[in-house]
Batch of 4 targets.
Target 1
Amino acid sequence: MKILIIGWEVASAEPWLDAEPERLTNLRWLMEIGCYGRFENSTESAGVVAQTIGDQLANAGKRVRVIGAALATGRNQDEEMQQSRQRFAEARNLLPTAEWDCGVILERAPGSLSKIGNATSDSSADALRGYAERFDIELSELLAVGDDDTAIVIVSSGGAQSNFILAAPRCPLHGEIEGAQPMDLAPTLLELGGWSVPAALPGKSLIAGRLSSPTEETGYTDEEETLVRERLAGLGYI
């Protein structure tokens, strides 16, 4: 199994929860086939959380690639949007060719759209929705690079709250999860991948003792296979 982690710093910590059903199709699809929730008692930025998970996996012997480690501030919002597109393009070009177990992408909304409290006016709210929809398109193109044996983690932060989405083959967790801590994701991902979890690794696996057998052909459980097929049918792919 490969692991793709996206640390997403954006003014609203939960853009996928606030969006209308027809918006952010790919984020909602990941929520439907996986799980999501708010981290308990965590105020760390999405970038810090994503990098920490990557460091923990690296310390466990996994090959980790980080994209966007140096998040430079552009001269204006248009330049920062271009930098965002370049980060996703780099990920799409690198991940299919490089040897890696975990890819970490650090993404930040341009300018004021990355700061809580600055998306309150109608124009700013519209700009935030537009950026979130573009992020969703970039996510779709990134998912097309992966395969059925790739786990996806998206961490979003804004203000005093950080949220996450986890979608992975063989993962028994579905729907909203309560009480999760950022440090719980690394041991969870290692267990999902069938790797040993170092005793010194902080946190606890969210799936301890709950793994079910995958189907041979896709790597998904029967329930996940049904959800995926229903979603693809709804999008007109099958």
Note: The first helix runs from residue 15 to 18.
Target 2
Amino acid sequence: MERKVTMTPPFQPQAAGFRHFAPSSAGTGRRDTEGAGAFLGTTNALGSLAVDEFTKNAYRDNVAEYIFTGLRKNAGISYKSFEERFGKQLWDIYGSTRDAYLEFVRTGCAEEDDAGIRLTLKGMNISNRIMELFV
């Protein structure tokens, strides 16, 4: 999909050192912007913020993003927080991958207890392989 945004001159995101594409996730959707105008409150020639697309994420996409973010944290994912946020227990959604996750626990790459799941230092080195279970 081609994105076109007209920025009000003289704003030049490249000259200011900003990337051309900056996704952000807030609530239950993802917003994509061209340049940094939306973050700085810059408007285009029509007076609108420079946001050209807003997509509502599917439930499963929100869960996966939560898992990926949570597993990157030392504390990991709290079962209680997960259930409060998504209305279901983690393994009710990902039950088919639990045995594979427990194999990572057995090899010392991940941990699970009554509070939740997390990666170990060893697991952080192969985090992509573990996170594949939650795609």
Note: Confidence is low (pLDDT under 50) at residues 11-24.
Target 3
Amino acid sequence: MRRKVKNTKRTHGTQARASGAVPSNQTNPIPQTNIPTTHVGHTVPPTVSDRYTPVPVPTPYRRIFNNMTWFPDCLQSCDTIMRVALICGFVTSTLAVGYATTLQQLSLDDMTRKSTAIVRGTVQLTHGAMHRGNIYTHYTVQVVEQWKGAPARQLDFVLPGGTANGLQQAVPGAPALVNGQEYVLFLWTSGSGLTHVIGMSQGVFVSANGLVTRGAIQESMLNSNGSSVSDPGMQMTLPAMRSRVATVLNGGSSH
């Protein structure tokens, strides 16, 4: 009977670790199960997204977060990261079940009010860099027209994901920009000094032939009530968008 009780407790602990729960008699949540090796020198759980290139994981925290270059100080910066995520209109899931992006639906009026700068101009990729354990791709935009924010001939901004220090990271929902293409961008500068695009792909419009266009977004999206919604994309003339943004900034509404 004693052996059966011990086996039962051991099985319960294994199930708790598999489900992500921490047994009441265990303070260390790091899983101890055998993890198959898929890259030489690296251990990768079967559910890890192929969007990440595994790296050596000398600290236990990286094992918890799917080897996605999370550092121990991430526990101190999580609050800041979440504030940036909520302002930019996206929430990311980075636990062992995979990596996904859920977007908060933002209207044109929402993005106009939340942004710190709205510009039209030509973009150019400059470099990738690591910021607080996450990779960002840096771009510059040569400003042709500015609808909000302090006047500037050039602005620097970032998109999540990219390549830096020999590592590659992909983020679902992040827009793919074309060098030399003209865009209308809704931007927001965080307290860290990094300038982001509002709402991921929602804040990027291709500007061509007098039209501004944003294709339909395929990622999961929630409205202000928390209900799942689909995004049909958006297209309007450049003068119509310029007028709509000006109306909102002057305290009016286009709805």
Note: Residues 105-249 form a domain with the OB fold (Dihydrolipoamide Acetyltransferase, E2P) fold (CATH 2.40.50).
Target 4
Amino acid sequence: MTRFHCPLFQCTPTFTNGPSGSGPANPAAALTLGPDGNFYGASLQGGGISGYGTLFKATTNGMLTMLTNFNYGNGASPYGGLTLGLDGNFYGTVANGGNNNHGTVFQATPDGTLTTLVKFNNTNGAGPMAGLALGPDGNFYGTTWQCGANGYGTVFQVTANGTLTTLASFSGSNGASPYAGLTLGPDGVFYGTTIFGGYTNLNYRNGYGMCSESPPTASCRHWSTLTFPMERVLMLV
């Protein structure tokens, strides 16, 4: 175990495994504080020779424990972090693996028991790159980077038992390729961004991006023109 004390961070512990080592390697997202006072996270690689990624626990005194590893069938490459649910379990996404390498949504208990809730199938989206946002209704909300009805990504809702609902599919003119997750506003609406779409070549991934808001309920009210249910978008200027 190695500990460092930094001006702004308590840097504990250090990841020492390579991408295909037995332990966690290359974490790409922030940590989540668990109800036990420990921190929980995901590593993009590590977890064995295939290196599909892991979930781990880190204590404040620098002890690192790998809780479970991904095996491609249950997903691979967790770019996003973990979200603590109302039931005390953690929820997250992986960008790859699952059905046809389209990614999954999973639940993990604090001791590392992993349950695959959703396997994306192209039609309902593919490649979630960010973690999930907990909604006021106890459900989780997220985005997929690509696919869906128009091929440019989706906004979705998933329940703790794995029921997935596609709330919106990006079309290019209202944005494309949401890489980041969603943020719940004080008005009960989720806000987010897309990397591409919007102005300049609206129908392909060469635009300047969008800001958007997506109510978890209610009918569509586009800020300029009606596009699809449960999605309002505002172009960046």
Note: The chain has a mean pLDDT of 81.
